[in-house]
User: Which sequence fits this backbone?
């Protein structure tokens, strides 16, 4: 098993909360993490028909048999259980008694907000980060300006295009499943099972087309009207479907950063897939050579970098304060990390050779923000850490 960065935060919270909830996309490794990190916990899965029937028909009896600390997997499959669990932990609020997990996050989080608010800590496990794949310790997600100059490429590092194509879902790494076979099965499972359980989708092929069109828009400003028109559905339907993709941790919306120094800011969020491998599969990209020649390469590299930053934050149990910045004249910063006392502008370029054009957005942001000495970061497809034009230049694997 590959070590997961979230383990440290999970163990810490179990010492403070009676319930800890672990969510994340299907097959991101939640069950494996819990069973490996908590060997002393009893494990029950509501995927098992007889166990689920017991929890549905006799929730008090089910919880009474949860002797000692217990992991309840796919907990959203017994929705009434949460109300009874509230009473159990109110009567005995000892920390670390229950761990809940599930893949249908839209249902799980709804039940938590209704019954367990204030009683549970919630953690999110995304697919593998590059840190986890390489077995290295992950620094803070907002430490990009402090990447050391002597940093060397780690052993076993894939090429940038291979990393983007493969993404981070664990099974292709640990079981050697071919990536195309894996993603085909993953999408079929997700659409035919999870989506059908939550959405009243009359035509699943229509929803699949919607997901593919979202992949074609990764790294772009979200235009819900255009997305609905291209799919052939109403805008409210597109909005509802997108909300399900977000709750499933398949996509995320990166919000724009607002500041008083410029009133002409774009207000629409940018859409990103949280796994570049899944986005590549939906776009029909199968080999590094196909990705290298694709007009989507820049957006997909940007998608991979954004996902890595978000993984570092979520796997440390933090909410990332990550934004993008763009004004109405087209000036843009791909990523803006808000660190409270300062903001760090980050530009992401797929090219392996640094040139002056790569710094244009950073220079413009510093000028408009009137912060000429602000820390800035350029992430690029090369291999050297350097300082150029007032920015820390960081290779893609140093994110």
Assistant:
């Amino acid at each position: 098993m590959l070590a997961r960065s979230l383990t440290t935060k999970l163990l810490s919270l179990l010492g403070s909360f009676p319930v800890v909830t672990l969510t994340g996309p299907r097959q991101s490794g939640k069950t494996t993490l819990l069973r490996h990190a908590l060997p002393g916990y009893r494990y029950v899965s509501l995927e098992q028909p007889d166990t689920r029937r017991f929890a549905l028909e006799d929730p008090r009896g089910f919880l009474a048999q949860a002797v000692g600390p217990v992991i309840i997997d796919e907990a959203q499959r017994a929705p009434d259980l949460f109300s009874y669990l509230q009473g159990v932990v109110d009567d005995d609020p000892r920390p670390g008694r229950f761990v809940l997990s599930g893949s249908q996050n839209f249902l799980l989080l709804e039940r938590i907000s209704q019954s367990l608010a204030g009683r549970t800590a919630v953690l999110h496990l995304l697919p593998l980060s590059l840190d986890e794949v390489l077995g290295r310790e992950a620094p803070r997600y907002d430490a990009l300006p402090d990447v050391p100059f002597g940093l060397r490429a780690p052993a076993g590092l894939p090429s940038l295009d291979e990393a983007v194509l493969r993404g981070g879902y664990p099974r292709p790494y640990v079981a050697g499943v071919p990536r195309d076979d894996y993603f085909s099965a993953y999408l079929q499972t997700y659409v035919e099972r999870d989506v059908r359980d939550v959405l009243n989708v009359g035509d699943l092929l229509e929803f699949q087309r919607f997901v593919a069109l979202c992949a074609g828009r990764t790294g772009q400003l979200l235009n819900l009207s255009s997305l609905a028109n291209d799919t052939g559905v109403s805008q409210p339907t597109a909005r509802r479907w997108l909300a399900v993709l977000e709750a499933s941790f398949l996509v995320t919306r990166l919000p724009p950063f607002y500041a008083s120094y410029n009133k002409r800011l774009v207000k629409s969020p940018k859409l990103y897939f949280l796994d570049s491998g899944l986005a590549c599969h939906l776009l029909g990209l199968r080999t590094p050579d196909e990705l290298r020649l694709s007009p989507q390469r820049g957006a997909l590299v940007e998608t991979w970098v954004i996902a890595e930053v978000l993984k570092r934050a979520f796997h440390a149990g933090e909410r990332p304060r990550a934004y993008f910045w763009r004004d109405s004249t087209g000036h843009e910063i791909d990523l803006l990390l808000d660190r409270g006392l300062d903001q760090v502008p980050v530009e992401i370029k797929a090219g392996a050779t640094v040139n002056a054009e790569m710094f244009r957005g950073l220079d413009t942001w510093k000028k408009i923000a009137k912060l000429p000495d602000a820390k800035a970061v350029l992430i690029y497809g090369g291999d050297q850490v350097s300082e150029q034009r007032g920015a820390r230049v960081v290779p893609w694997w140093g994110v």
